Amino acid sequence: MLSSSFFYHSISIDALASATGTAYSTYNEAMAGMRFNSTPAVIAAACLLASYQTGVQSRHLRSLDSAFLATDSNRDYTHLGCFVDNRSDRVLGYKLVDEEVDTELCYDYCLEQNAPFMATQWGIECWCATEPDLEYERHGEAEELCDYKCGGDNNEICGGYLAFDLYEIESFTTM
């Protein structure tokens, strides 16, 4: 018997094609019309494989990834979403600019700052916030604006122009 926290999902090749916005025939070639009855992590892996083979990245894959897949077992953070930034009213404080920015580098930097929140922006920026009650939604959500690839890992998204991908560092929220 499966535990209540273990969910099965069914997804067809049509759903994969729809979720990524690519043509059915492209995914049909990549995935050979397979049907998946599996966990979200396995479905996300299938989406990733299809994305890799077709060159089309799914926005839905990002939400599956942050919800179900651990980026690194030693790094404990949760993606909260993409939010609008404002130059005259910054949400986050500490800033690192580095051509090699990715979520792992940002995580390490924000841990050094003792920050419970980290964010990537503009592909090369890492921001940290030390306030436990961060008002990160005050300028709105902007999932469609976070489309810049990370300078340190082209397979990751690191915010966008005046938009940041926000993460909560779990080790601070459990203390």
Automatic annotation (TrEMBL):
Residue ranges of the TM segments: none
Keyword presence, Membrane: yes
Localization (cell): Membrane
Membrane topology: Single-pass membrane protein
Domain WSC residue range list: 76-170
One cellular-component annotation, GO: plasma membrane
Keywords, alphabetical: Glycoprotein, Membrane, Signal, Transmembrane, Transmembrane helix
Keyword Transmembrane helix applies: yes
Protein name per its UniProtKB record: Oxt
